[in-house]
Specification:
single chain; about 475 residues; four-stranded antiparallel sheet; 19 strands; about 25% helix
Amino acid sequence: MAEIKEARVPDIGDYSDVPVIEVLVAVGDTVAKDQGLVTLESDKATLEVPSAYAGVVKELKVKLGDTLSEGAVVALIEAADDAAAAPPPQKAAAPEAAAKETPASETGAQVEPNSEGALQPDGLARREIEQVESVRPQPASAGAPATPPVKFDADSVLPSKVPYASPAVRVFARELGVDLAQVSGSEKGGRITREDVQKFVKAALSGGAAGAGASAAAGGGLNLLPWPKVDFAKFGEVEVKPLSRIKKISGANLARNWAMIPHVTQFEQADITELEALRVQLNKEQEKAKSGVKLTMLAFLIKASAAALKQFPDFNASLDAAGENLTLKKYFHIGFAADTPNGLVVPVIRDVDRKGVFEIAEETGALAKKARDGKLGPAEMSGGCFSISSLGGIGGTAFTPIVNAPEVAILGVSKSSIQPVWDGKQFQPKLLLPLSLSYDHRVIDGAAAARFTTYLSQVLADMRRVLL
């Protein structure tokens, strides 16, 4: 029968009242024998307190900032039946004998054998000690072919060369592929924390990791291969044309958004047969009235998108830089991609939920003209909640637009076409509009995206739904 055991701080030499800097487990966690429970930090070393038993953590007796000495109770463990057995035998003498075969000058560190469960605060973390043990030559068995010795760099495990971090942080960094030598520690004495590793990774993804090395810098902080340098002129005639200022700015933003946002694209087709007929009819009436306002499908798309955003508030939101909080917006400002000679810009129509399609069409036309003339102001391109990129006037069947951060979704629109649709009895010719919704998967899941595009296609099929 399982019984409650006290996991205590083992022999830590002459140290006492050592602060707890990390709690590695929580109540209810299942731990293995020798698994770390907490991390202690002395003035010379970082020490991990292992569990002497395998079982379930029933109670934690310490918290961050507490100080512990040898024998202090760290946690209560509901030990498995085999955990209550007699303690394991002492280590065999083979490692000690092997240690004698390897002079300390070859390993760069003096490692003394230690009793079971004891911590050795000699400036090397336990994992570095294990690394030294792993590279010591072992006696070859009779008849076994000799293997070449493992090349070992002693400098890599000297205390002055090893990055200052706890074993748990080292494991975390290894899982993320982070070289701790490139990370700056924020705690006392330059100790590297889990948060320091996370910040380093975020900075690397945005191309700004300081001290990431020449190769990382050449790859935008992502440890990519350097951009290929090719002398194209040796293959034939070339012309060098600098990118426009708009393309340089938008290119940097697009690269960041694509690298940092986990994109998924949901595809849908909207039946706009009746909507297109209505648009044509209204434009004929406008021509007779000589109002000068021409309705485009974009105006209806903007109006329909506002209705969908009201129905699904998470799409009308922004995620903060830490990826922890979502800001839900109560206003509906929608941007649209405008094609200009210098590149794409995104003017924003404000409060589209309060405007009719004629007013929206008039504003989109005016803003598009200002964009082509290069007279669009910063205020006219800010504050957007959701963007629409319409290529319907050009062609294509589908594409994957890139989310315009800090928005969480963008709608791509391709060219509509007449297609046969089965109505249950026969095929009917319908005008179908391809929709491509790209979204930030950290905020929106696939089911929500499918519901959003389904609702949007229903609104486009019958704009009376906007009144609901």
